[in-house]
Amino acid sequence: MSAPQDDVEASRAPLMEHLIELRSRLIRALIAIGIGFVICFGFADKIFNLLLWPYEFAAGPQKELQLIYTAPQEYLLTQIKLALFGAMFIAFPIIAMQIYKFVAPGLYKNERAAFYPYLIATPILFFTGAAFVYFLAMPLAMKFFLGMEQAGAPGQAGIHLVARTSEYLSLIMTLILAFGICFQTPVILTLLARAGFIDSAWLKTKRKYAIVIVFAVAAVLTPPDVISQFALAVPTLLLYEISIYLVRMVEKKRAAESAEPA
């Protein structure tokens, strides 16, 4: 066998090992999602009632809420979506751990230690974003929508919000995902800084572009009302400023390490 063929065979074996390892990690993640799905589907109605709290808070105790579904299978499909959504929350720590275990063998010991804070910060920031939606953004959005109702009067039709179960669930899930992802800004930017792709000076010079992009993303991800857009854009911009501070800390630490004698 020639030398080039030997090199191909030598590289093929590690590749197959990596693919087998990746398959096993994916299977474990899917099992975790499956278990979470079964659990959440069994409590889907209770979880949905829990997600109704922002709507109930915005409406106030004097208003009796009523949601509808207009197709026989609609509420069942809503429960399936809800169960899958809850399963991703439950399985997220396991999924993150599987990703880390797949990547960790290729990292040096000091790189693994540096990776731990990001592994911890990612779910914390995501759940912080979800809590921000649940306790602030969603109640504000529902107050805005309920404020558009019109009481019936002589010669004037009454206009009242009677939400569909699927549409309400889609709205709150979209907001939770949008805020959860946007709250990852410090993690993403700090990782890019550690990799050497960006620095704090670059982030400062691009601040005005970041403001435009953040508001554009907020307009796409949130309902078409100013309150929801600002509720997403303002915390994201605050996190951008925090990211600049964290990136500066990374730069100072790197400078201190390079100044130490070998």
Written description of the protein model:
This protein is mainly α. It has a domain at 3-148 and 157-183. It contains ten helices and no strands. It has helices at residues 3-42, 44-51, 53-59, 74-103, 109-146, 165-182, 185-194, 200-205, 207-221, 226-259. Helix 1 (3-42) packs antiparallel against helix 4 (74-103), helix 5 packs antiparallel against helix 10 and helix 9 packs across helix 10 (226-259). The longest helix has 40 residues, at 3-42. The two termini are 45 Å apart.
Brief summary:
With 262 residues, this protein is mostly helical.
Throw out a few tags for this protein.
262 residues; mainly alpha
Tell me the span between the first and last alpha carbons. 45 Å
The proportion of strand residues reads under 5%
Global mean pLDDT: 84
Give the oligomeric state of the chains in this entry, treating copies of one chain as homo and distinct chains as hetero.
single chain
The outline comes out as flat
Provide the gyration radius in Å.
24 Å
Largest sheet: none
State the share of residues found in helices, binned by percent: over 70%
Q: Mind sketching the topology for me?
A:
Elements: H1 3-42, H2 44-51, H3 53-59, H4 74-103, H5 109-146, H6 165-182, H7 185-194, H8 200-205, H9 207-221, H10 226-259
Helix pairs in contact: 1-4, 2-4, 3-5, 4-6, 5-6, 5-10, 7-10, 9-10
